[in-house]
Amino acid sequence: MGMLTPDKVQHYQQRYRDILHEGEHTYSAPDKDTREPGQRGRLKRSKSRVLLERLREYEDDTLRFMENSHVPFTNNQGENDIRMTKVQQKISGCYRSMKSSQTFCTMRGYLSSCRKQDVNASEALDPTLQKKLPYIFDIEAAE
């Protein structure tokens, strides 16, 4: 994966800041004059305003992928890794046993690792369907 040149990084950082500056005008901060007498606490901000402030506050973290080749452009892989567990939890409410939950997580972890190593899921599952399970599926041995 190629890295951006320092000139390109600087260009995109400036473009990012310009976009945030435009957002500042579109989603302005809450007006302190609208506060009722005696009202305390923080002024309510819109979701758009909160996002704008977080993007400004965490600019280095948001743009880190441009300068560090080990940082992925998106966090989709991390979200994908937990999505099936959450879907299973939503549909069924829970697993019927600890062993079934361990087996599910082991299988999802195995497939996720295979995907990261560019191994097709059907190729990865072929040995398991022939009852030649990798040692990681022996739950009792892992305990």
Provide an overview of this structure.
By secondary structure, the protein is mainly α. It folds into two domains: 1-28 and 45-73; 76-142, no CATH class. Helix content is 59%, strand content 0%. The protein has seven helices and no strands. It has helices at residues 6-26, 47-57, 59-62, 76-92, 98-116, 121-129, 139-142. Helix 1 (6-26) packs antiparallel against helix 2 (47-57). The longest helix has 21 residues, at 6-26.
Ends: how far apart?
Answer: 39 Å
Query: Could you give the count of β-strands?
Result: 0
Number of DSSP helical runs: 7
Q: What is the residue-averaged pLDDT?
A: 78
Helix content: 55-70%
Task: Report low-confidence residues grouped into runs of 5 or more.
Answer: none
Question: In the residues, how many domains can be counted?
Answer: 2
What would the keywords be for this entry?
single chain, mainly alpha, 2 domains
